[in-house]
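Q: Hi! New to this. If I give you a protein sequence and the SMILES for pyridoxal-5'-phosphate, can you show me the bound structure?
A: Yes, paste them in.
Q: Okay, here:
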Amino acid sequence: MSRFLSAELAGLVPYTPGEQPQSGAGEPAYIKLNTNENPYPPSPAVRRLMQDLADKPAGQLRLYSDPEAREPRREIAAFYGLQPENVYVGNGSDEVLALAFLAFGKGRQVAFPDVTYAFYSVYAALYGLKTRIVPLDADFNIQPTDYLQPERPEMVVLANPNAITGKNLPLTVLEQILQAHPNDMVLIDEAYVDFGGESAAALLPQYENLLIVQTLSKSRSLAGARVGLALGRPEVIADLNTIKFSFNPYNVNRISLALAAAAVHDKEYFAECRQKIMAAREFTAQGLSDLGFEVLPSLANFVLARHGKVAGSLLYRELKERGILVRWFDEPRIRDFVRITIGTHEEMQRLLVAVSEILQEVA
Ligand SMILES: *Cc1c(COP(=O)(O)O)cnc(C)c1O
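A: Thanks. Here is the predicted structure of the protein with pyridoxal-5'-phosphate bound:
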């Protein structure tokens, strides 16, 4: 740390991303099941478009990108039966979350579970927001009653399905929470909704305090393009734009805007990939249970699992030795678990073989 960093930020603990080994840098090629990326490439339409873009006069990049992101907003609105005014597009959903915390959290407290996406507490700390961190129950469920009697103005932030656990809340429960916060924003982070959950987008006509955040990183295989989005009432989307135009108007580059629109347009390929991943998830969960694991029921593209006889950290290390990267979080409630991203069926078969070898050696 330099002596110039603002004193207020001196204690900031940043988010720690999962490992991203760089192929060709002397690192072995891993089966990468640690950051919830999609094992399948983006839609063929995205690939074709990339080639087209490369063949066009490079002059395209001379020009700034569309600050209103009209092309992907049109496609996203059509996908959900909404209007483009209901859609905001950002540089990954992390950026959308960052702007939303600023827009709707400042001057309030922010409430979210103790076990959830780690970035929420980082944004709160970055902006100096007060937090109300609500423990999940013993089975890692969100207890809706914890969010029904706010004692002061608070923005509620819930990942649904929840990050790290994969557990999902029904829309009826979200409605209770929305009704309990008529003067505050309820942000539902639907990063994993396409793997079996139900989007709260259907609730937008009834609730002006609903903000939905999604990403093209996971279900649409575009993690490297960095495109996230928000769905909300036009006034709420306008607020996000006010913040964005006060910060970085050309936040998404031209190429990513075009690729995002093409990816959302291709509904068939999307449906095919999510079906394959959901099937591989059930196969993996069953395989791990058969090996003696406790596997939390997941509607996401990952499972959280623990084995009574092997520590999470050991499993993580032993799998890495065998060329398989999973995620282990050195945090009180989830230290015994590993989080395993769902890859292809073949990758998950190799994972299960490796896990059973490890169990034979160490358990
Ligand atoms: C992956 C993830 C994000 C971030 O996605 P990007 O669009 O790649 O920035 C946001 N929220 C949750 C819960 C996630 O798991």
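A: The pocket of pyridoxal-5'-phosphate is lined by residues 36, 92-94, 117, 159, 163, 189, 191, 215, 217, 223, 228 (CB under 6 Å). Let me know if you'd like me to explain how to read the tokens.
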